[in-house]
Amino acid sequence: MNAGAAHESGSASLVVRPNRSLSVAGMVVLFLALSLHAAAIGVWFTLAGAWMILPFTMLEILIVGLLCGWIYRHRDDCELITVEADRIHILKREGNGASRYDFPRYWARVHLDRRSGSASPTRLRIGSHGRYVALGEHINDADRVLLAQELTRLLRS
Amino acid sequence: MCVVRSQSRRGVLSRLISGITLAAVPVLAAADYQLNLPPPVSYIARRILDLHNLIFIICVVIFVIVFGFMFYAMVVHRKSRGHKPATFHDNMTFEVVWTVIPFLILVGMAIPSTATLIEMTDVSKADMTVKITGYQWKWKYDYPDQDLSFFSSLSTPRDQIEGKAQKGEYYLHEVDNPVVLPVGKKVRFLMTGNDVIHSWWVPQLGIKTDAIPGFINETWTNIDQPGVYRGVCAELCGKDHGFMPIVVNAVSQEEFDKWVVAQKQKASSDAASAGKTWTRDELMAKGKQVFQTCAACHGPNGEGIGPFPKLAGSKIATGPLKDHLNIVLHGKPGTAMQAFGTQMNDVDLAAVITYERNSFGNKTGDVVQPAQVKAAR
Amino acid sequence: MATATAHHDAHPTGITRWLFTTNHKDIGTLYLVFSLFMFFVGGTMALIIRAELFEPGLQITNPHFYNQMLTLHALVMIFGVIMPAFVGFANWQLPMMLGAPDMALPRMNNWSFWILPFAFTLLLSTVFMQDQGGGPAGGWTMYPPLAIQGGIGTDFTILSIHMMGISSVLGAINVIATILNMRAPGMTLMKMPLFVWTWLITAFLLIGAMPVLAGAVTMLLTDRHFGTHFFDAAGGGDPVLFQHVFWFFGHPEVYILILPAFGIISQVIPTFSRKPLFGYNSMVYATASIAFLSHVVWAHHMFTVGMPVAGELFFMYATMLIAVPTGVKIFNWIATMWRGALTFETPMLFAIAFVILFTIGGLSGLMLAIVPADFQYQDTYFVVAHFHYVLVTGAIVAIFAGAYFWLPKWTGHMYNERLGKWHFWLTMIGMNLTFFPMHFLGLAGMQRRVPDYALQFTDFNQWASVGAFIFGFSQLLFVILVIQAVRGGKRATAQVWEGAEGLEWTLSSPPPYHSFATPPVVK
Q1: Chains with ≥3 CB–CB distances under 8 Å to B
Q2: Which CATH architecture group holds A4-18+78-156?
Q3: Structural domain harbouring B88
Q4: What CATH code is carried by the domain that includes residue B317?
Q5: Do C379 and B239 touch (CB under 8 A)?
Q6: By the number of CB atoms within 10 A of the CB, which of A149, B7, C168, C197 ranks highest?
Q7: Which residues of chain A neighbour C2 with C-beta distances below 8 Å?
């Protein structure tokens, strides 16, 4: 992890983006596999006279479909942090929406909250004047700590 | 097996503690533990026992060989003995071998199993038929060829179950009317259920078949030797599932014929007694006996048990006689209250209804005659 | 470190932390604590059963209450103990093993846990409604027409099963999404730890099976109250249809309860053998083929209902076939131990016990598959012994193996090894004393689900009852041990165990990969 190249011009940027190992095609295959398996069972029982299983199968396929859709919409979720000479811009992309935050660089503070206990997660926030925005909520704990260090370094440089 | 246990009045905890000490002391010598299926008395039961022993031995041999390797590794390949770990993690030959060999063993087991199963299901060429119907919680036996029909229910007194009397040798394995079968004859059984699913199981005959309402299952036996063979209901059928045993009395053909004649005489004398007018005392005495059946749910003093309603002071038992007759004769659908009209004769019904209407503080003063029951049917 | 650390309004604490948490570790802990609590609830019911069966006659329960106890004991242990425990393990371990930051659907993860306490409150409240008929008393299999007779407890049970079903389906989707979508770069499917594989397959089974259960209990409900006749022969229905439907759910369910256990054991044995798992690929294929076969063996639970011979033969052969992949697993575990450098810490002891005792359950399962012999075993204590060997000395023992194995990772402290060994040996003595004599009881003719029995069964029943109390009370040691480990003790290293391998053991530092990067300058 190195932001050196960008640093020379006085501005640097970081992309925080969790890994997504399932391709869109893979998701379609998964959805078809799950729903065809469930549907086959439901239809088979309907033919045997126990038709009340089918509605539950349909409900389940609906839930699987909705959740696949949710995952699909969030496949490109990321946070773009741009540190400029006097401003910090944060672009959070979540699902179909995006939100932007903007802080004066010299007032901005990075907070890494820890909870006691070795297995507890950390929380990373950046902001100023009592307005904070959480960062790196979708990455590993260890990465979040590194991100906090990197951001702190960038802010000070 | 003839151990009769004296009832102690100690608490459960102290009994458990004494049980712990009991288990610590070797008790193996004291009792004769039955470890395997009971001695078979029919061809099928014998085939099943042979099959069971065969599979069991195969399983034991496999177990010993497989875990022999494991125990060897546990003893020899220990880190504490300075054993250095090998690094292999694959071996195609071994993996194929231990897929194929178990498969072949399974094929070897499947062949005799299939043969036995096909014999078990061959109900053709039967010498006689017995229809068995499961009721909550008793069995009904119909002999269509002999034109006989009777109920068979637990005869162990409630006092023994509740620990107020010493338990007899055949505790919970005894009935009032055993089913009598001739030896050396192929008997076909037709099984069905009246209310819920039951399962008619006599281990020594090698028969277990579900008695399902609305369905008729077939099975058969051919008993080799005379004797008394005991069994139970094997499918959970409600509260008294554990209290509906089966007793099969296997006798010679002559004895069987005599028994049939005796049963028919008894049936006709019962019919005669239904015609006469009974006194209140006679009805109350008989009713108290018959009420044993009802007490299973409604409590020995009509106090009710859990979801089963009490009779003491109830609307039915103190209200109009018509309603009382109706519910006893026709039951209450969707509950365990059955249509006793199909299960008891007029005398028993008249007696028990009289008893219910004049006991547990119920004072209707009604005396119900068998003729009234007959009219209400 | 130059980072400022703030504690005010940082993380929610107290009850809100647990109510609203979306963190996989917190939710994993909730599942595990819930499971441990329910283990004691279900265990208490088991001890009531065993106390009643200590001697012939009715001493402490009446038959109706006894039937409620045996029904609730099964429902609690299956849906309230084993399944939540495995979901708890999945929550803790899957993200760590895959190098993922969390589960794929964190908010839903929270819901699927919090449904459970409500479902079980509903289920267990029926015990306090004895005047309205009490709890469900028709066995956890809920066969009609008996289940139709039940009181309001049956309706509560149906509702609560619906809730558990929703919880399981949501959990299963989450597991699948996590495994397929959240793997770290380089973590290909055939590199995933076996625990991950077994859970992936389990989740597929859950998604197939749960609508079937939901439909089955709904049909019971409409038969009870809304005039349908699915299972009522008098109305043209078929009581046996319910059994087909139920066991079509029920048999995959059996594998849902054991596949994650296979996964746990496949993690533990290589660690303490200091040798890689033997035959990783064949383990994966064996798991998948067990899952496949589990769809075509359901009727072996109902050989005595009077199926056509062809049907009985088909289900017998299919059931026997399951012994092949299961055998492969056992052989692979032993081959993993072979020529390793074995040590016997508590997790390994439980794992070895699992392999031996589960095999006993597996072999008695093979005996039960033989239809003619099954006619003698069906619905007897032989079956009770079989499925307790599979589920208690199988699934529960594997859960203990996993709990001891990962406890240092979760709490950061080593547990008390001496106490762990005591717990292991008392548990072994107790459970074998409880369940082994049941084989003999069944063969000798004792049917299952009865509160009272004939005199010749007394001795073995007393053994079993004594064993059950030893088994039950020794579990308190485990509670003490867990509390100790949570509160303090020797610090655990990141690797914890000498032979441990995999992402979860290296996670603290350095992290396996970076999920953020510096892109080219935007302007």
Answers
A1: C
A2: Roll (2.30)
A3: 43-120
A4: 1.10.760.10
A5: no
A6: C168
A7: 149, 152-153, 156
Rg (CA), chain A: 22
Per-residue pLDDT in tens (0 to 9) along chain B, 377 residues = 344 444 444 444 444 444 444 444 444 444 457 888 999 999 999 999 999 999 999 999 999 999 999 999 999 999 999 888 888 888 889 999 999 999 999 999 999 999 999 999 888 889 999 999 999 889 999 999 998 999 999 999 888 998 889 999 999 999 999 999 999 999 999 999 999 999 999 999 999 999 999 999 999 999 999 999 999 999 999 999 999 999 999 999 999 999 999 998 888 887 777 777 888 888 888 888 888 778 877 888 888 876 778 888 888 888 888 888 888 888 887 677 878 877 788 888 888 888 888 888 888 888 888 888 888 87
Which member of C255, C298, C381, C410 is catalytic? Answer: C255
C490 phi/psi in degrees, rounded to 5: -60, 135
- Residue C326 annotated as catalytic: yes
| C168 included as an active-site residue | yes
Nearest to C309 among B86, B121, B236 (CB): B121
For B132-141, give one letter per residue: b (16+ CB within 10 A) or e: bbbbbbbbbb
Nearest to C239 among B22, B89, B214 (CB): B214
User: Which chains neighbour A (Cβ–Cβ under 8 Å, 3 or more pairs)?
Assistant: C
Q: Which tokens go with C206?
A: 């859950």
Last residue in a domain, options B238, B269, B300: B269
The percent of chain A in helix, strand and coil, each rounded to the nearest 5, is 40, 25, 30
C329 is catalytic: yes
Is omega for the bond preceding C510 within 30 degrees of 0, making it cis? yes
Active site residue C253: yes
- Nearest-CB residue to B20 (from C233, C445, C466): C466
For residue C422, indicate whether it is catalytic: no
Taking the C-alpha atoms of residue B13 and residue C50, their distance in angstroms, rounded to an integer, is 12
User: What structural domains and CATH numbers belong to chain C?
Assistant: 19-251 (1.20.210.10), 258-512 (1.20.210.10)
d(CA A133, CA A151) in angstroms, rounded, equals: 14
Answer with the one of B120, B147, B180 that is the final residue of a domain: B120
